[in-house]
Structures are given as C-alpha cells and as structure tokens.
Amino acid sequence: MLVAALAYACVEAARSGGGSLPWLALAILPVLLSEVFRHSERARARGTLFPDALSGLRTAAFGTFLLMAARTGAAARPVLDAAANLGALAASVGALVVLSRLPTRPGMFSPSRSARSLDAASFVGALWGLAVAVPAAYALLPSPMLRFDPLLIDYVTTGAGAGTLLVFVAATLRLRSLRKLELDIGDRVRSASAIAITAFLVAIPAAWLDVAAPDRVLPAACTVVALSCIWAAIAPDATLITRLLRGLLAITMLGAPLLVLSPLLARFFPERSPLLVLLVSSASIGVGLLAHAVARPLGPERSRWLLALDQAARDALEPEPRTALRAALAALSRIHPAMHGSAQIWQRHPPEAFKVDIAGNLNVERAEAPAKLYELGLDEPERTVRAEVLRALKVRRPELRELLAWFDGLKAFSATIIVDEDGPIGFVLLPRGGRRAPLTLEEARAARLLADRISSLLSIVAALSRARERETLATERADRADDECRRLEHVIHGEAQRMRGFAERLARPVRRAAYSGAARTALTAIERLAQNPFVALIAPPGVDALAWAALVHCSGPRADGPLVIADAAASDEETRRLLETDATALLRLADGGTLVVIGMGVLPPEAHERFAIALSQRSAHVARSSILPPGVVLISPVDLDEAVGRGALGSNLSRWFAEQTVKLPALADRPDDLRAIALDLLARHAIELGRPPSGIEPSALRLLLEHGWPGNELELSAVLARAVAQSPGAAVTAQDLERTGFVPIEPESESLEPPPVARRRASVRPR
Questions:
Q1: DSSP string across 171-207
Q2: CA nearest 363: which of 353, 372, 373, 351?
Q3: For every residue of 214-237, which 3-state class applies, written as one string?
Q4: Is the dihedral of CA 242, 244, 248, 250 positive or negative?
Q5: Domain match, 182 and 278 both
Q6: Rounded to a whole number, what is the largest CA-CA distance in the chain?
Q7: Edge-to-edge strands of the sheet including 412-420?
Q8: Which of the residues 53, 89, 216, 615 has the least number of beta carbons within 10 Å of its own beta carbon?
Q9: Is the domain of 454 the same as that of 438?
C-alpha cells in the first residue's frame, strides 16, 4: 500500500509536467523505502531499535519519500500538494511519537508519565490534517462546490509548517526539562531540542524573506527536523550525536545568515552575481575554518569538565601509584577553584580520602563513605551517582536524604564508583562548584574511564595500606592464621549459599502458590514454629511435603545449614540403615541444618526408640561452637496420635513433636492456589518436553477446579503432564484434558475442619 501511494504520487507528478524526474523517483523511492523497512527490522531483531522507534522510523521514511515524490511535479497542483502535506504529516507525527516513547534507562531516576504524552503528535496531526484536507477537497470536489481561493492551500500549508516547527521546539524543550537527569536520554533530547530550534531559526526567516516559496520551505524543514530527531533518538551512541551537533550548530550559526542573504543580494543586484558567487565561496571557506573554534564553547561547561577528565585519565597512566593519583587529582582541580570544593578519590578498605592542596601535595585523610553510595552506584548508568538525581528523588525516596546531605556537605556534584574483580573499592568525587547544567553522557563516560584507570592504582595503594596495618598489628603467624580464617569463611559462606539455594529451590513451589487462606495460615504457622528445632508436618497423600519441609528450614535460624532428607521408604539402603541403627550419625550429618524424616512407619518400633534416644542425647549435648544442633522435621500422613495408635510411630518419639504440629492443607482446600500451581507445573512439564511454557484455558481451569483431587499435587502433576503431552497448542484446553481421560470428580464431602493449627512449643523436653 505504501509503495502504491509513492507510485501514485510519482505518476501524478509526471502527468503534471515534471519531466523525467518523477519517473526517476518512481524507480528509486520504493527501493529506498523497502531498504528502510529491511534494515529497521534487522535493527529491531538485534535489540538496537525499540518497537515504537520501528514504527515511527518507517512512518517518517514513508512521509519523507512521499513528500519528495510529490515535489518532483509542477507547482500549483492540489493533488500533489495534498500528497506532500500528507508526507509532512507522517514524518512529523512519527518523529514526535518516537521522542515521546524513548525508553527509560536503568537507574534510580525515572521520568513522569507526562514525558510519554502524545499530545504534541495529536496536535501536529490535526494541523497537517487540515493542510491535507484543503488541497484534497480542491482536487476531488467539482469546481462549483468550491468557495475558496486556491491561495488558501498555500496559507494552510505555511501555517501547518510554522506550527509544526513551533510544536517541535515546545515538545523537545518539555522533554529536555522532564528527562534532563537521564544519562543518554538527556543527551538525545537536548540534541533534538537544538535541532528543532536551529531549524525554526533558519526556516522561518528563509520563508519570511521569500528565499523560497514558504509552502515548499516549511514542509521540507518539518521533514528534515523529524528525520533529525529520529536519528538523535535511535543513534547507537548519544555522545556521537552531541559531537556532530556541536559542529553542525557552529556551521549553522555562521552559514545560515550567508545562506539567507546571498539569494536576496543576488535578486537585488543581478549584475553583481559573479562577484557575489566569489564572495559567498570565500565566506564558505571561512565558515569551515572557523567551525571548530566556534564549536568548542558549545561543549558542556565550555568543555572544562571534559578537558580536565581527559587530562586526569592520561595522568593516571603514571607507573607509580601515588604519583599517578596526585597528578590525576591535580588535573581535576582545574574544574573549579578550591573554595567551591575539591576533587577527591576515596578508598573503601581501608577507608581513606585522597586530595591535593593548593600547592599540589597529596593529602590522605581517614574517611568512610556511606555504604548506600556503593549499593546505588553499581546500578547507576556509568556507575555514577549524581547529587542532582538524589535531590530530585528526595521526596519520593526518603532513604536517599542522608546520602544527599553527605553530598551537600562535601559540595560534591557526582561520585563515580571504582571497581575491580572483587567489587567496589572506592570512587572519584567531583566538585559541584558553580555548575548548573546536568551531567552529560560524554562527561559520565570520561569519569568512568578515569575510574577504570585508577582501579589498579587504588588497588595497589589499598593493598600497601593494609599491609602496613597488618605489619604493625600482628606477627607473620597471625597473618597466616587470618588468611586461613578468611579462606575458610569464604568456603563456608559459599557452601552456605549453595545449601540455602537448594532449600529455596525445593520451597519455591509453595512460595509461588500460597494465595488461599488455608495456605497462608499454614505458612504463618510454619514461620512461627520454624524457630523450634522439632516440627511435625501432617501431609495428606500427594501433597508436596518436601517443599513445605524446605520452607520450615528456610524460615528458621538454620537456613544456611544443610538440608538432609532421610526417606525410610526409599531405595537408599545407607539412609535406611542409619535410621534403623545409627540415628546419631544421621543427626551429625545435619549439624547446623535440618533433618527431614519421611516414612518412619516402615521402620520397626526399635528404630523409633533409638531415634528418640538420639534426639535426647543431642538435646542434652553442650554446644562447643556457634553451629546449632540439627533441627528435625517429621513428615507423617496422619495425625501423630493416630500414627501412635496404629504403631507407625513410637510414643516416645512422638512427644518431641506433639506441641509443634502443622497440618498441611489439601489441594481441595486451596482453590485460590490452583491456577498458580497449575501454571508452574505446566511450565515445568513443557520444558521437560522441550517446548515453550504452556498456559491454560479458562475452560480447562474450570474443570480442574471442579475436581476433588484426592491425590492432591501428585495427581494434578500427572494430569497436567498428560495434558501437555497431548496439547497441540500453546495452552491446555478442556479438550486436551478430556483426551487424557480426565473426568472431574466432586469431593465426597466438604471439609468443615478449621485451617491448620500450630501448637506452641513445649516448655520441657522429654528425656
């Protein structure tokens, strides 16, 4: 359809007497449009183009080519004027949509909702809609029905063009105000604002002085502004945009008056045209020579920050660490006088701050920065925490006020975190001075480059400081002991993390699907009883008792210890032997953690008595370290009293758990959790089959809710496994369940039992 519109405009232009140019446009423009679509799709697939930019870029490209095709024809053709105005509409609206949909970068600051408003695009669409409707009416309606002069087409086109340029200026200035604190995005909207203002200051005088027809100049200017704004929004490197725009603005400032005045002089003095051509050519050469000098003051803060940061990064290459730090700080001190604050380099361990005095000497002070600074800095763009961002967020995030007060106390503008392979080791603190402009991406990257180069220097300086402290505080033997303790602590910490991760994975199904009242009551009871070393879980058949037991482990003080599972009914002969004959050794394996015992009913009564004796001995044992004695979670399918009556549990053993019992809810008592459990099981079964995660249709979910689930989660898992294997689509339907032979069975009687009750811990343990 878009190619057909381009072809129609080219054919109409050719019919109007445009010569061979419309036919050339007909051969080239559709090819260019298809190339834009192809390359934009590749960029979107690579992730370098966000979705709204894809549609906006394509719309603007089509509008630009349509305007070009219409302008290849003769003037004063309403059909071509309508097509050209439609192209300007598409390009302008597409660019404004892209600007309003710029994605938010990671970091503390996020823009307000008004930054994503499409009111500017809507207003421009209304302006150009009128500019399209007038020439279209003149071209399509019979002459007797027309009551307006053809000159009205030029008026509405000129008005729409001037209005669109004003809207671009207003919209980009508003975005600049709303998103100026976002690195990368702030540079892009500042560039777009500069483009819009420059185009307005060039196009309006050119149209007013009649350098060219206003109805031709202004739509073309709108299209150029739209394409330039899209380029500023989607270019891979925002710093490249700012550097190019500085040169472009310098050339525009020098060349725009020349461009506007030269046609006027040639019009008033036609006999002097050769001399004017010579003078304009000479002036153009002068513009090129002066552009670099004029562009330099257009840099941020007259480029003082960039020059100082670049010089500091070069000085940081000195081989001697302290000399390099002194030289880098001396270069940074040129940003502002010392009375407005001084640049500093802070070290985390040991906590020290380096700065240079007026004489250029390196001073070291004992100082410690807030830990919040390192936590926030690692997640900020370019690892730079800015005082202006903290000030903007101090109302919404009160926890940042203390850090902001610390920045203000040091008259600091920003802090760039220095990291090595072990994490943050310090930061570079830049002074605020009299600066009012926000930090640019170019400056933030220069500060990060400096921090990366200082990283190795600061690591060496910190290592030397630590070595001197250790030398004065301890002997060589104490140093070796400390190193060994740190190594063992690291090993223990890593092992604890692995153990905790294993338990958390086991408990994940319960945490993900605990919305019902019964499940929340059981969770509350478990979290309260998890502080006790002995807990019994009454789990109906089919309930995922291991997940609940892992939750007990993770909720108590033994969460970093091992989670040992002993299933007497399993095929592991060693575990069964330990349960029967050496429960003390089994408890020793769970030292500092939790032992989960399943299937005690299959063991002989003598094993129950030995296990109770082992618990008594471990409870009476005096701890000689910070490692807690093991906790025990007993899983039983029936109440403990009933299990004792059946002979499936020894009476002495049951007394250890009688006062800390939690009855786990059956699946039929958790209708609010069924959907979450089903989705989790469907995802797991689909992944096992090598398919994308499956969903479930409401009709199928309704069937599941109507079933009584005597087999609880185990039965549900089996049903859904068969349904996923049979389902041809992305979601399980009621038909898929019926194909597996699933028929809902109502529960025999509704449970009138109260929610799971947790009993208090006994004050005296049996001996």
A1: HHHHHHHHSTTSTTHHHHHHHHHHHHHHHHHHHHHHH
A2: 353
A3: HHHHHHHHHHHHHHHHHHHHHCCC
A4: positive
A5: no
A6: 123
A7: 362-366, 352-356, 344-347, 423-431, 412-420, 384-386
A8: 216
A9: yes
- The CATH number of the domain where 409 resides is what? 3.30.450.40
Q: What is the pLDDT of residues 530-587, one digit of tens each?
A: 888 899 999 888 888 888 888 888 888 888 888 888 888 775 677 777 777 888 888 8
Kindly report the CATH number assigned to the domain that includes residue 718: 1.10.8.60
What are the pLDDT digits (tens) for 367-383? 899 989 999 999 998 99
Q: How many CB atoms lie within 10 A of CB 473?
A: 10
The whole-angstrom separation of Cα 182 and Cα 132 is 37
Same domain (yes/no): 683, 726:
yes
pTM of the predicted model over 0.70? no
Contacts 24+ apart (CB under 8 A), 603-607: 603/568, 603/576, 603/579, 604/580, 605/647, 605/650, 606/580, 607/579, 607/580, 607/581, 607/583
Segment 177-221, tens digit of pLDDT? 888 888 888 888 888 888 898 888 878 887 776 667 888 889 999
Residues 253 and 317 in one domain: no
Give the C-alpha separation, 725 to 557, whole Å: 42
Residue 216: both structure tokens together? 């031709």
Nearest to 328 by CA among 416, 434, 428: 428
Spatial distance between the Cα atoms of 661 and 527, rounded to a whole number of angstroms: 12
Show the domain range for 251: 238-298
- Structural domain includes residue 760: no
CB count, 10 Å around CB of 104? 13
Instruction: Report yes or no: 138 and 92 within 8 Å, Cβ to Cβ.
Output: no
- Residue 244, amino acid: L
Domains of the chain: total:
5
User: Where does residue 718 rank: exposed (0-12), middle (13-18), buried (19+ CB within 10 A)?
Assistant: middle
User: Would you give the end-to-end CA distance of the chain in angstroms?
Assistant: 88
Helices 214-234 & 238-268 angle (0-180, nearest 10): 170
Q: What is the DSSP string of 644-710?
A: HHHTSS-HHHHTTTTTSEEEPPPGGG-GGGHHHHHHHHHHHHHHHTTSPPPEE-HHHHHHHHHS--T
